[in-house]
Write a structure and sequence with these properties.
D-Maltodextrin-Binding Protein, domain 2, about 40% helix, two-stranded antiparallel ribbon, WH_DNA-bd_sf (chains A, B), HTH-type_LysR_regulators (chains A, B), alpha/beta, homodimer, elongated, DNA-binding, about 300 residues, Arc Repressor Mutant, subunit A, 10 helices
Chain lengths: ~300, ~300
DNA sequence: TGTTCTTATAAATTTATTTTATCACAGCTG
DNA sequence: CAGCTGTGATAAAATAAATTTATAAGAACA
């Protein structure tokens, strides 16, 4: 099996025309015919039906099976090229979601600056979900990500840096302001200012709703945490926010949840299992872990 | 990049000797030298240091990076070969853990037999964890698996068939036998008969311990559910068991847990994302889903 | 019916890989 | 220290494989 044959075949499946595939790769048409024949001979099967009224080709079930693997192999080959190229690079492509970037990452910034590494970071700032995809696609080297579940899997290496709690935040003027803690189900009649879907907050909020059998009113959604805090401060509604983002300057009251089941805001340092960190990357990773890891999660 | 060069290089990394690799693949030694050179030229880097006191070779950091990808690519190629070969086969390699096999799968067996498919199943019966690995390694086509968390990921396609509850089972002679339900933390002084680690029960039990801040005494572990039931029946201890495995014939009392957080026993039909089911496999999958899926989980 | 668009085939060509033969180097050993 | 052994590199020759060129064959379509 040749990688090149797989790319020819994969393109054939999408273009459905031998000549077009040949043009695409700047080769002659019989090259594509031969490539498909090689694969068909190797696996002793028919991958493509060509006679079918001659309008277009048809991929057989065996063909579809091979395509599934072909895509995985081609993707891995692309990642290989990206990673091998990135190896000689000094720049570290770094993903940072807004909350973690504003309230958590700064604790490590001075140590990175000391080591002369802050300037090497090419930072992408967007939601954790998007960063996760970029990481998996080889577009980022390292990211700090927020999540409710562990991100460790066969693709990604995730080091847990901190587990933060989600809090209920209310205005000092709110009727809840005198309390220190509250059960989530007691909030069923409250109006919430919620984060947009690129935050993990709506997911955690949904899980709490499910477990408490309530469904409070969300009156406004925003991706701007400062705006959210201001709206809560003005008592327009109450908020649901990880303690990560809370500072004394907010002039907000935060209530702990008393529920035994609680989603947590996990902050992890994530990189691909398949990417061996470069020297620079290794330094960044070490400093971030040292500076940001909460003691209780040292292993 | 050629797959063959990657396999040569990968073997070189483990054997650490060009000549030995050549012998392994029944080619001459310069072939290996050339293969490594091709890769080094393609990625414009040094992958292997050969002069180092001439005792053994040394893989450079770039070499290690390439190795990581090489292994992933080689694994995928192996899976491809397995899947393409399995495509023409009538036999379906089917994984079935003991509890699901005894208490849950029989509901589908008659319909499989009707369709003449029961005899096509090559059944492997072992713990869910082992079956999961076998599935990922391409040694199984389909499995029914028990788990506490969803098994869906980038490798596996999992269809949820049922969510069962974990119950506390006690002897009719037990002092708990008059109750219908109980909070887990009230069991802190009880003695438990527990399943061995190849079951999901110890994991779920551990999660409940953690949430309830208790740590009950486990006096015996067994992989034999009938023995476990007998021991509980004789009031040697109490048990923690998915309702899947409970039948009226057991003469046991089962108590529901009242906790708001409860792990669940998920039963899923699982196969690899990358394996396109053969005609026979498709039939088996359809019948299993139709016969076993609990109504509330139709999508 | 001839034109066009398609893929297949076969021979020639080009490119790539492997082998053969040999060299160079280092570590051991008598 | 000379000679043996085991290691990998190199260059030319041989082999193998992929691609191109040129052409055929089939179907759709005007």
């Amino acid at each position: 099996m040749k990688i090149r044959d797989l790319t020819y075949f994969s393109k054939l499946a999408s273009l459905k025309n031998f000549t077009a595939v040949a043009d695409y790769f700047s080769v002659r048409q019989p090259t594509i015919t031969m490539a498909v024949k090689r694969l068909e001979r190797e696996f002793d099967t028919t991958l493509v039906l060509r006679d079918q009224s001659h309008q277009s080709i048809l991929i057989t079930p065996s063909g579809h099976q091979l395509l599934k693997h072909a895509h995985r192999i081609i993707d891995e080959v692309e990642l290989t090229n990206l990673d091998m190229a990135a190896l000689n690079q000094e720049q570290v492509r770094f993903g940072l979601p807004p909350i973690i970037g504003h309230y958590f990452f700064p604790k490590a910034a001075s140590r990175l600056a000391q080591a002369g590494l802050l300037s090497q970071l090419a930072v992408t700032e967007t939601g954790s979900g998007e960063l996760l995809t970029a990481l998996e696609d080889g577009k980022l080297d390292i990211a700090l990500l927020g999540s409710t579940h562990s991100l460790n899997n066969s693709l990604l290496n995730a080091t847990l840096l901190a587990k933060h709690h989600f809090k209920i935040i209310v205005s000092p003027k709110s009727h809840l302001a005198s309390q220190q803690k509250i059960a989530f189900q007691d909030l069923h009649d409250e109006k919430f200012i919620m984060q947009t879907e690129d935050f993990v907050h709506p997911t955690a909020f949904g899980a709490l709703n499910k477990f408490s059998f309530i469904n409070p009113n969300i009156i406004y959604k925003t991706g701007d945490i400062t705006l959210l805090k201001n709206l809560v401060h003005e008592n327009v509604g109450i908020g649901f926010l990880t303690e990560t983002a809370l500072t004394p300057q907010d002039e907000l009251v935060s209530l702990a949840l008393t529920d035994s089941f609680q989603p947590e805001f996990l902050i992890s340092l994530v990189f691909r299992q398949s990417q061996l960190p470069s020297a620079t990357q290794k330094k960044v990773i070490d400093i971030l872990i040292q500076a940001l890891r909460t003691d209780s999660y040292h292993q």
